[in-house]
Amino acid sequence: MKKISFFFSMVLLFSVWLGCASVGKDFDSEKVKDIKNNITTQLNIIDWFGVPFKEGNENGYTMWTYQFDKWNLGEVESKGLVILFDDKNKVKAYRYDDSNY
Q: How far apart are CA 91 and CA 70, in angstroms?
């Protein structure tokens, strides 16, 4: 009987564990409204959002990605910010997506 209880307890615990997961690092999406093309610098972005989740290049320009995805028992929260910088390290363009809107 103890083995059966232990088995069901482990199945329940594993199911709960599988129901909760996240990828990336949460960031303050309120600061997105402060981003201004040709004005906001990489240092501003680091100060507001921290180190990017991913870094890359697009047509020779630096691109940073901030991403946060969270699954919790069937609910999904997702937000992403992609920023393209010009050759003077200022924001050339950006895109923000949020599943909560």
A: 27
For residue 58, which of 24, 86, 97 has the smallest C-alpha distance?
A: 86
CB neighbourhood size of 6 (10 A) = 10
Instruction: Round the CA-based radius of gyration of the chain to a whole number and report it.
Output: 20
Contacts of 99 (CB under 8 A, 6+ apart): 76, 77, 78, 79
Domain count, the chain: 1
DSSP classification of residue 51: S
CATH of the domain at 40: 3.30.1450
49-83 confidence digits (pLDDT tens): 999 999 999 999 999 999 998 887 767 788 999 99
Residues spanned by the domain of 83: 21-98
User: Does position 16 have pLDDT exceeding 90, yes or no?
Assistant: no
Left, alpha or beta for 86 (phi > 0: left; psi -120 to 50: alpha)? beta
